[in-house]
Amino acid sequence: MTDLSRYDDWLAWLKGIGETDPDVRVVFVGGSAVTGGYDDHSDLDVEVLATPGTAAAAYRRMLDAALRDFEVYQVWELPETTWPDGRQAFLTLTPDAGDMSRPTRIIDLHVSDLADEHRLIDERRHGVPHVVHDPDGLVELRHDDEEEMTRSRAEAVEQAAARRPTAQWLVNRAIARGDTVEAVAFHHSYGVSALVRLLRIRHCPARHDFGLRYLGTDLPPGYAERVAALLEGDDLQSRADATFAWQDELLADLAARG
């Protein structure tokens, strides 16, 4: 079990909110606390499911109560348009969030309307949630639609193969022109990010769309370091060439596997 004691006060507070606010139906913790990689600088990913139609109001009550009950140094509220059925905010509970000399305390608070898409959790993708409040047993482990994930992966591979010559042209053209910022941006997006998507499809298909995070736990040993080596160094052309060569290997391997 992950040691969440750094957030014991918040976990107790969340449990109390669930027990006293009738619109708060479910509270659970997700993120690295349940998927792996949690450490002294991890935030606490809090998911709250509210009675349908009440998420925005429940979020506002929780945020107001948190600001009253805790010493909150900074709040980042995402725009109202970010989520169609809820709100999200990051609450910083330490004076300087960038200070890595002491443990971090940041709450990622996401409040949504109760719906299957939020209460059904694919543990392969999101881990087994740490449930704080769920008196009606609404949280359920269930794999996401396999047909849709298969379609999404196949489309990603198809696009990577079709984009491959154009992507290399964009990177190499920027390098040849001496447009360093553009070259680095294209290398990251069309080179490394596309490579990582293929690596995920090959080695952790359930989390094929998780991007560049969690590579140390999602990919085979040593792969995260190989990817990191493509992001740093003086010779961008050599790194770009190596990136596209690796893409070619993966595309050939994935094609052979069907």
Structure, explained:
With 258 residues, the protein is of the alpha/beta class. The chain folds into two domains: 5-141, 2-Layer Sandwich (Beta Polymerase, domain 2); 146-257. The chain is built from ten helices and eight strands. A hairpin with an 8-residue loop joins strand 3 (74-77) and strand 4 (86-92).
In short:
The chain is globular and about 60 Å long.
Features:
258 residues; alpha/beta; Beta Polymerase, domain 2; 2 domains; six-stranded mixed sheet; two-stranded parallel sheet; 10 helices; 51% helix; 16% strand; globular
The CATH level-2 architecture of the largest domain is identified as 2-Layer Sandwich
The rounded Rg comes to: 21 Å
Class of the largest domain, according to the CATH hierarchy? Answer: Alpha Beta
Gross morphology is globular
Helix percent band: 40-55%
Kindly report how far apart the N and C termini lie: 38 Å
Derived structural class: alpha/beta
Number of domains: 2
Unreliable stretches: none
What is the CATH T-level topology of the largest domain?
Beta Polymerase, domain 2
What is the H/E order?
A: HEHEHEEEHEHEEHHHHH
Q: What fraction of the residues are assigned to beta strands by DSSP?
A: 15-25%
What is the number of beta strands? 8
Sheet with the most strands, sense and barrel status:
6 strands, mixed
Number of helical segments?
10
User: Looking across the biggest beta sheet, what order are the strands in?
Assistant: 3-4-5-2-1-7
Q: Would you tell me the overall average pLDDT?
A: 97
